[in-house]
Amino acid sequence: MGDGLLAIFPIAGSDANATEACRRALAAARAAQANVEALAEPAGIEHFDGLGFRLALHLGEVLYGNIGSGNRLDFTCIGQAVNLAARMEKLAGRFGRVILASSAFARHCGSEFAVLGEFTLAGFSTPQQIFGLLEEG
């Protein structure tokens, strides 16, 4: 994804498995945010703008695997869920937020997120409800 990174985590079975996966993903997102912020501490920089870091959390179906031919074979991930996460990540910069979530993700961690609004995102015919962490508000 250019200078970005996409992480995918297979979830099998019940809604309880999805909830546990979302809670763990949120904990990992917070840890990543803390690690990036810690990079500025030794230099005494209050607002570290040298390293942009934004993260979008979404729960959805994707297709992944090796795509191509013998001359060019790439491991990739495709689908609307990938597209939504990418569009949300870009939206995070507009809000000055580090972590955003889709409604599909936020419903599994409801008390952690607040609705920011509905937004028209490229490639989607209907507005998408986007959530932000309460502590970033």
How would you characterize this protein structure?
The protein is of the alpha+beta class. The protein is 32% helix and 23% strand. It has three helices and six strands; from the N terminus they run H-E-E-E-H-E-H-E-E. The protein has helices spanning 15-38, 80-95, 103-106; strands at residues 55-57, 63-68, 73-78, 99-102, 113-119, 128-133. The strands form two sheets. A four-stranded mixed beta sheet has the order 1-4-6-5, sandwiched between helices. Strands 2-3 form a two-stranded antiparallel ribbon. A hairpin with an 8-residue loop joins strand 5 (113-119) and strand 6 (128-133). The mean pLDDT is 86.
- What is the tally of helical segments? 3
Overall structural class, as computed from helix and strand content, comes to alpha+beta
Low-confidence stretches: none
Cα-atom Rg, whole angstroms?
16 Å
Strand order of the largest sheet: 1-4-6-5
Mean pLDDT: 86
Q: In which range does the helix fraction lie? A: 25-40%
Characterize the biggest β-sheet.
Answer: 4 strands, mixed
Order of helices and strands: HEEEHEHEE
The count of DSSP E runs of length 2 or more, i.e. the number of strands, is 6
Report how far the terminal alpha carbons are from each other: 28 Å
